[in-house]
Design goal:
The chain has a domain at 3-78. Helix content is 67%, strand content 0%. The longest helix has 20 residues, at 85-104. The chain is built from six helices and no strands. The chain is elongated. It is mostly helical. Helix 1 packs antiparallel against helix 2, helix 2 runs parallel beside helix 4 (66-78) and helix 3 (45-60) runs antiparallel to helix 4 (66-78). The mean pLDDT is 78.
Length: 124
Amino acid sequence: MRSRTLVEVFLPLVEHYIMPAATLDHLLVSEAINTTGRIAKHLGWSAYSALVQKYIRASKDKNEGVRVYVRTLVAILEIFHFSVEEAVQQIDLSTDDVADGDQEGLVDEPPSILPVDRQDTKNR
């Protein structure tokens, strides 16, 4: 399924049960949290990142729903499914290139001192 379908259709249906209310069934809330995590597993990066940011903002509110939002955020983060090995390798390679480039630019000669124009100093 496409990320857009999951975000626009299924997440709103499930998120309806992830709200701070004492009258809701706690097992239903737990299943909604688990389902949100499972849906997050199939999202693309932009949709996944937006969902994480949404629950980070929601968990900063000081109300009775903070625990539910934090549990949902943890469920989403535990399902993190993006490969970071390639990004780490790219960062390592670019760091090596920068270090090699710095070494190539080093010169053993001292920097040259520009001569001072003596006429300017005499006129002052």
